[in-house]
Amino acid sequence: MTEPSGGSENKHRRPVVVPAVALTAFTALGITALLGGLGEAPEAPDPLGPGAVLDQGRFDTKFVESRVRVEKAKSRWEDDKRFVELVFDVTNKGNETAMVGLPPARPDQATLTSFAGSLVKITPAFPEDAGPFTYALSKGGETRQLHPGVTSQVIVRYKLKDNEQPPEKMTMDVAAFEFASTFNNVTPEWKMISKEAGDKVVPEIKARVTLPVKKGDAS
Questions:
Q1: Burial of 185 (0-12, 13-18, 19+ CB in 10 A)
Q2: How far apart are the C-alpha atoms of 132 and 47, rounded to whole Å?
Q3: 208 near 42, Cβ under 8 Å?
Q4: 83: enclosing H helix or E strand
Q5: pLDDT (tens digit per residue) in 96-128
Q6: CA distance linking residue 200 with residue 108, whole number of Å
Q7: Cβ 175 vs Cβ 205: under 8 Å
């Protein structure tokens, strides 16, 4: 009996060649799927530098500079004090007086409506005993209030230890505010724009600001 016509089942099959570009594309798609799909990657905050002005909703904020400031000793028994300062020109656009406030110790604690409360993260971090110390400058001296329609210079400062060198730069993650009602209060009020992150509520970062530290002859 003769064998049926056609190729033998024992013939070797040709290998399929997949271009490297295709493999790269498949890999990228796989990683994207693991991360939650296309279009869902978090947007990077706007990068800003010295002199930039940011609309924070409740405030218009100009990031003036970061610098080393020396306070001379008032007597020979005291030592000079050195600080790293962040300097802002802040305009309160609301109808009520706002507080200068303090930067939060952690992002999930940034729930206040103060200006400095919107400085969600400041890098590098300083020890607790170094500050921060905050105030605004007015004609009568220092104040902790920001009046409606008024532009005030705000200082956020950290004390340097003896022989401690100041950082090369300071970076801030900055949040914004919105005037809106809440579930518990139908009367609109200023609140920080936030989002859920796991079981916590954290501020949305609108801008990342980097200021080189001006040392002069104070370092």
A1: exposed
A2: 23
A3: no
A4: strand 81-92
A5: 999 999 999 887 777 678 999 999 999 999 999
A6: 7
A7: yes
Q: What is the pLDDT of residue 188?
A: 83
Angle (CA) 172-60-98 rounded to 5° is 90
Burial class (CB in 10 A: 0-12, 13-18, 19+), 98: buried
* Pick from 75, 217, 92, 76: nearest CA to 154: 92
CA atoms within 13 A on the CB side of 65: 6
Question: Which one, of 115, 122, 124, lies nearest residue 147 by Cα?
Answer: 115
* Closest residue by Cα to residue 86 from 50, 60, 117, 128: 50
Confidence of residue 138 (pLDDT cuts 50, 70, 90): confident
Per-residue pLDDT tens over the stretch 151-167: 999 999 999 998 899 99
